[in-house]
Amino acid sequence: MSVSSSVQQARQALGQRLRDIRRDSGLSARALAEAAGWHESKCSKIQNGRVMPSEADLRAWTAICGVPDQAADLIATARNIEGMCIEWRRLERAGLKRAQESVRPLFERTRRFRMYQSWVIPGLLQTAAYTRAVLNTIVSLRGTPDDVDDAVAVRMERQKVLRTGDHRFAVLIEEWVLRTVIGTPDILVGQLGHLITVGSLPSVSLGVIPLGSTRGAGWPVESFTVYDDAQVNVELVSAHLTVTQQAEISEYGQAFSELAGIAVYGAEARSLITGAINALG
């Protein structure tokens, strides 16, 4: 799903909620617009997700429809939509080091991490060489400032969270990630050996979803991390999506549970990792 379509769907969902509120009140779009002093087309554009309502619009809408108590939740939803999408280029404009440092407070305050990766080994479980290969690719593709060495150092420093504090990490990785060469085969071999090591830490639960698994509801989706039950960060090709609405966080939690149900753990997961190492010769 593209960033623009993700945001547009969120706008349309907000518009549908407002349409339902208006219909429940018995008002037509024309009557609501007249009461608010708007052109009638404004209601249509808001309901169809073509125009984002302002906070004042939402207060007026709910007051006219007789449900002013719903204004606060609708405003929170609108703020989330406005801030949910940060372009990778904008985030990385000041350099990769700054992008890595920006998530430090989030990692420090989170106690329960749920990570699903369908693209690369999760950053907290990466070796320095693998991280460098990933970030060099980002520099090449996006033309971001080349401060890769500094960014690698920040990420390696952040990995202390695996061994300190009261943090727990549930990690799910698609098996094909284990066989995707980033950098060189030697870099991947080192990364996979490291994955076995960190996967045995008391704070880490590592699951691998085998190739050919019967999916049911647990189909591959975009990579994401759930931080406690407070926030979800979603990795898209062109953007970083931040989700803070509880209903949407619950959906990602459910998706994680379904994916966890088809993963293998312990000796079975290690066997898949060593199989990927052996395939590299």
Short description:
It comes from Kitasatospora purpeofusca. It contains 14 helices and 7 strands.
Rg is: 22 Å
Q: Estimate nothing, just give the exact number of structural domains.
A: 2
CATH architecture of the largest domain: 2-Layer Sandwich
**Global structural class:** alpha/beta
Shape descriptor: elongated
**Terminal CA distance:** 36 Å
Strand content: 5-15%
Number of helices: 14
CATH first level of the largest domain: which class? Alpha Beta
Helix content: 40-55%
Mean pLDDT: 87
Q: How do the helices and strands follow one another from N- to C-terminus? A: HHHHHEHHHEHHEHHEEEEHH
CATH topology of the largest domain, which one? Endonuclease, Chain A
Low-confidence stretches: none
Number of strands: 7
Strands of the largest sheet, in order across it? 1-7-6-5-2-3-4
CATH superfamily of the largest domain: Endonuclease Chain A
Domain HTH cro/C1-type: 17-72
Organism: Kitasatospora purpeofusca
Protein name: Helix-turn-helix domain-containing protein
Pfam families: DUF5753, HTH_31
Describe this structure in words.
This is Helix-turn-helix domain-containing protein. It comes from Kitasatospora purpeofusca. Residues 17-72 form the HTH cro/C1-type domain. The structure is a single chain. 55% of the residues lie in helices and 13% in strands. The chain is of the alpha/beta class. A seven-stranded mixed β-sheet has the order 1-7-6-5-2-3-4. Helix 4 (55-64) packs antiparallel against helix 5. The model has no long low-confidence stretch (mean pLDDT 87).
